Automatic annotation (TrEMBL):
Domain of life where this protein originates: Bacteria
Residues that span the membrane, as ranges: 6-32, 53-75, 81-103, 115-139, 159-182, 202-218, 230-251, 263-281, 301-328
Lineage: Bacteria, Pseudomonadati, Bacteroidota, Sphingobacteriia, Sphingobacteriales
Nuclease found in the keyword field: no
The protein's name in its UniProt record: Cytochrome d ubiquinol oxidase subunit II
Species of the source: Mucilaginibacter ximonensis
One Pfam family matching this protein: Cyt_bd_oxida_II
InterPro entries, alphabetized: Cyt-d_oxidase_su2 (IPR003317)
Length: 340
């Protein structure tokens, strides 16, 4: 049953990045859109994420619950040594969701309040994945000192380092890239399609640049990132698969594809996560002096894991069909509205 719980944990993290990440990316795209086209971007974005933006955070909640119940040592370790970036990320989630709702449903839509909501939405859309990436990078950077005796060493230097920050920037670029690819499929006007294709190309280049910064920062911080990714056949295969999918993605876009590029983009990001995560499994947090927290050793009692695994299996029978129906029902509703 431990294997079932671990699969659900990593599945929830992956889906949160693919769905929630694209959600954040829509705000990132809006942030870097000219004032002339902002209203067009918002219209397409509302159609794409408006009906289901809250559902995306379900995967984050599931991951947190699994860590809290099934892996309390890992949960407490992250909430202790990485509480600053985690708090910043969660505040960004709250601020972004609030602004998204208020700027659409505010009873008094004055220019000043709309400008405030817009600013909160786009900047929190940037900062949330930034701190999400910083948290992820910190968990693998070996900068967390479980024996720290002072505040800065324990709670600041654990995440405030070049490697974690560059991982955060890389995460922002990936989220924006995912959103651009997803929005290509939502755009109905040829002008908008071309705009989102252009933004996807720019964000693809930015992601490559930020990825290079990650490797450079890894060398600076004595992190053997290149060895982790290229030093074993599984991670290397994942990198090759990601590269091939990127080529197929752009070929599909050149041929006018809208849905297939989404599949390639999601697959590419999944392979990137696999290439990094496989090397460290089963370690979830890698600290200084070889002190790691593993999902295979730092888990709850067998009884708790069995109960949690059973609850996840039963819950998935209700949650997944309901989620698919949510997507389907709003898609059908949009189709009817477009027809009228």
């Amino acid at each position: 049953m431990l294997t079932v719980v671990i699969i659900f944990l990593f599945f929830a993290i992956l889906l949160y990045f693919l769905l929630g990440g694209a959600d954040f990316g829509a705000g990132i795209i809006e942030l870097f859109t000219s004032d002339t086209n902002k209203h067009r971007t918002r219209a397409t974005m509302y159609q794409a994420i408006g009906p289901i933006w809250e559902a995306n955070h379900m995967w984050l909640i599931i991951a947190v619950v699994i860590l809290f119940v099934g892996f309390p040592d890992i949960y407490s370790g992250m909430c202790t040594y990485l509480h600053i970036p985690l708090l910043a990320m969660l505040m960004g989630v709250i601020a972004r969701g609030t602004a998204f709702a208020f700027r659409n449903y505010d009873a008094i839509k004055g220019e000043r309040t709309q400008a405030l909501y817009n600013s909160i939405f786009v900047y929190s859309s940037f900062l949330t994945p930034l701190f999400l990436g910083i948290t992820a990078g910190s968990a693998l950077s070996r900068q967390i000192d479980f024996d720290a005796k002072d505040f800065l060493t324990a709670y600041v230097y654990s995440w405030f380092n070049w490697f974690s920050i560059t991982v955060g920037l890389f995460t922002v670029a990936l989220c924006g890239f995912l959103a651009a690819i997803y929005l290509i499929g939502e755009a109905t006007d040829e002008y908008d399609v071309k705009r989102f294709v252009k933004k996807a190309k720019v964000l693809n280049a930015v992601a490559f640049f930020c990825g290079g910064l990650v490797f450079l920062a890894a060398e600076t911080n004595n992190i053997r990132l290149a060895h982790w990714i290229f030093g074993n056949p599984v991670s290397l295969t994942a990198v090759i698969a990601a590269s091939i999918s990127l080529v197929l993605l752009w070929i599909s876009i050149a041929k006018g594809g809208k849905q297939l590029p989404r599949v390639f983009a999601a697959f590419q990001v999944s392979m990137i996560l696999l290439s990094v995560g496989y090397t460290h499994y089963p370690n979830f947090i890698m600290g200084k002096n070889g002190k790691n927290l593993s999902v295979l050793t730092n888990h709850a009692t067998a009884g708790t894991i069995n109960t949690l695994g059973t609850a996840l299996l039963i819950g998935s029978l209700f949650i997944l069909p309901a989620l698919f129906y949510l997507f389907y029902s709003f898609r059908e509703k949009q189709g009817v509205e477009d027809f009228h």
